[in-house]
Write a structure and sequence with these properties.
Layout (H helix, E strand, L loop, with lengths): L10 H38 L21 E9 L4 E9 L4 E5 L2 H5 L6 E4 L4 E3 L2 H11 L9 H4 L9 E6 L6 E5 L2 H19 L8 H16 L13 H21 L7 H45 L3 H14 L4 H11 L4 H35 L4 H12 L5 H13 L1 H8 L7 H34 L7 H47 L12 H4 L8 H25 L65
Antiparallel strand pairs: 1-2, 1-7, 2-3, 3-4, 5-6, 6-7
Helix pairs in contact: 1-6, 1-8, 3-8, 6-7, 7-8, 10-18, 11-12, 11-13, 11-14, 11-15, 11-16, 11-18, 12-15, 13-15, 14-15, 15-16, 16-18
Length: 630
């Protein structure tokens, strides 16, 4: 592509980035420590509060598998100058993409030619669209692009490109041999991008919830109230994205003039230079979080020991201060009436449009799979054949083509929803779509499928004995089918309500807080003295104030949900509010953590276990909630 950075990062640039990372960690880690304390308090409060009633369950599968590995030959644009070269590409189960010169190198365990984690990437399959993107990166005032500048992108060996674009990293350009291969890779890569992006959102670990809250408050103190996609990725990747956003304007101004080349060649060089900046920042944030890890572990243990004995006193004090802060309710109600009430029904309906068709598609897949099992069973198969059919049924959540039906429904409303909520400062529609897709695959389909397969496998084993013939087994299967669908309808109804509720909070709470910043928050310091006697970082007046605002907003959301979804005895609550210990009105099940959209059934650090046959599930290694930089 011609132009390249005149040199790698020099010492001055490295020192500058190191100073910026150090400043970021100095400002962020105190906030993280406070949120770790608040997260432990929330966890203990949940333990003391009302517990969710046990539901009718199928036989449980103890572990849930991750995703299957995807691999095959592609052609990649690489080298200096870049040229199209054949490679063997492997997408690992943890969302890491690797490429080798030949398949044999992969099979022999050789080091890959290159690798990247997929956090933050987007996929383009149109060459024209990608070239327009390059043009926008470094606009050419003349508007001319010579043939030399277009090579070798226009000399693609195939007509089925796969462009991986990242705002701060080197672009990756691949080409597939056929349209079917291109589609299979696109679906696999999209799954890897989502898996890497939602690692924190899927965790219920106190440290992960604390980190997301700390990021939100850190950015809020800098004037960024709106929710956006900066929280996609591991903690080190999130911190890196936050800092890169802050530094990008200065980096462009300082480095773009020194780049050689013009037009698209210059844009290509810019992405390579950005990749060097990003790598340096990521290395710094990763090192900083690794250094903080021992302190974090000690702090969590200390907080558990010190908060638990005094939790009743702390919650009573919190309740008293929350009552005193009710004076903000006047400005709050005025703000909601003027700027939220008119938007709430439209946003609710748009969120419903994002999740309801996806869940309907999941139910259709379940029904079709169980009907197929029933027909096979009535054909009097051998027990081994039935087990094979059950395994096939269990693979449905990892069939990209099948799941694409569900994912597509969640994706349809992204643009319309983005336009609707952008005036409210919400720019996190990609996170929202990922959340809806996670809901269909991980919270419902995986849990239900794992339980169903465990039940069906026992049924298949019983067919091998004289105690249960095929007709009896078919009757049992019909009963199981009814239980599965009944459980699905129950779970999907409550999950849909929770999904809409949590994203309403993510959309409207930052907006409301920004509107009240001048009128209400300035009065908070006068209440700080009441917290000095406790001396615990778990209680802050800012946190109690946000709980008051969140609770009033939540009442509005519940009323709207009741109108749209019908009467329900279950009101959405967010455990970050810590309502239950002193205010039973509106108390309910544990939902999400104050800002973590967790819709998964496992913890981040829990290793995957293939409950089927071990042949197609990539074992996902344990991941620390604080160190996963890639």
């Amino acid at each position: 592509m011609g132009g390249r950075p005149s040199s790698p990062l020099d010492k001055r640039q490295q020192q500058y980035l190191k100073g910026q990372v150090d400043a970021l960690l100095r400002n962020f880690l105190p906030q993280y420590r406070r949120q770790l304390a608040a997260s432990i308090l929330r966890q203990i409060s949940r333990e003391l509060g009302p517990q969710e009633l046990a539901r009718c369950q199928l036989l449980h599968s103890k572990k849930l598998p991750r995703v299957r590995e995807h691999r095959g030959p592609l052609t990649q644009l690489r080298g200096h100058p870049p040229q199209w070269q054949p490679i063997f590409c492997v997408l690992r189960g943890d969302g890491r993409l690797e490429w080798f010169s030949h398949r044999e190198e992969y099979e022999n365990g050789s080091r890959p030619l290159g690798s990247t984690v997929l956090t933050g990437y987007t996929i383009l399959t149109s060459q024209r669209e990608y070239l327009c993107l390059l043009d926008a990166l470094c606009p050419d005032s003349s508007g001319n692009h010579t043939q030399e500048e277009l090579d070798p992108l226009l000399e693609m060996p195939m007509n089925f490109p796969l462009f991986l674009q990242h705002p701060f990293r080197r672009h990756l350009c691949f080409s597939a041999a056929t349209g079917d291969v291109q589609r299979s890779w696109r679906l696999a890569l999209q799954g890897g991008i989502r898996l890497r992006g939602t690692v924190l959102q899927r965790s219920q670990a106190p440290a992960a919830l604390a980190f997301l809250d700390a990021i939100r408050l850190y950015r809020q103190h800098q004037g960024h109230f709106g929710y956006d996609d900066v929280t996609l990725g591991s903690d080190a990747e999130v911190l890196t994205a936050v800092l890169m956003r802050e530094l990008l304007p200065a980096l462009r101004a300082q480095t773009l003039p020194g780049l050689r080349g013009a037009g698209r060649a210059r844009a290509w060089a810019w992405t390579e230079l950005l990749d060097a900046f990003h790598a340096a920042v990521l290395a710094g944030t990763s090192a900083g979080l690794r250094a903080f890890q021992p302190e974090k572990d000690e702090l969590l243990a200390f907080l558990e020991r010190t908060i638990r004995p005094d939790v009743d006193q702390m919650l009573r004090l919190r309740a008293r201060l929350a009552e005193r802060l009710r004076e903000v309710q006047g400005p709050l109600e005025s703000c909601l009436h003027r700027k939220v009430d008119a938007q709430l029904p439209r946003v609710t309906q748009m969120l419903l449009n994002a999740v309801e068709p996806a869940l309907a598609a999941v139910q259709a897949l379940l029904t079709q799979g169980m009907d197929r099992l029933s027909r096979h069973l009535r054909g009097r198969p051998l027990g081994a054949q039935l087990r094979k059919e059950v395994y096939s049924f269990g693979e449905m959540p990892w069939d990209p083509e099948l799941m694409q039906i569900c994912y597509r429904e969640a994706k349809r409303s992204q643009k319309c929803l983005g336009k609707l909520v952008a005036p409210l400062g919400f720019l996190g529609t990609q996170s929202l779509v990922f959340g809806a897709q996670d809901l269909t695959q991980q919270f419902l389909l995986l849990q239900l499928m794992a339980d169903s397969v465990a039940t069906f496998l026992q049924l298949a084993d019983q067919c091998l004995t004289t105690a249960l013939d095929c007709d009896q087994a078919a009757e049992q299967l019909e009963k199981v089918r009814g239980r599965v669908l009944k459980k699905f309808q129950s779970d999907s109804s409550s999950a849909q309500r929770r999904f809409i509720c949590q994203w309403q909070i993510c959309i409207f709470l930052p907006f409301v807080l920004s509107q009240l910043e001048q009128s209400c928050k300035a009065e908070l310091p006068e209440f700080e003295g009441d917290l000095l006697a406790v001396g615990s970082p778990a209680l802050t007046i800012e946190g109690i104030y946000e709980d008051v605002v969140r609770k009033v907003l939540l009442q509005r959301i519940n009323r709207e949900l009741k109108k749209v979804l019908g009467a329900s005895d279950v009101s959405c609550t967010l455990d970050g509010c810590l309502e239950a210990p002193w205010d039973q009105e509106g108390a309910g099940e544990d939902l999400t953590g104050s800002w973590a959209m967790s819709v998964n059934c496992w913890e981040v650090g829990e290793p995957a276990l293939d409950v089927w046959d071990g042949s197609w599930v990539e074992q996902h290694p344990p991941v620390s909630s604080c160190v996963w930089a890639g």
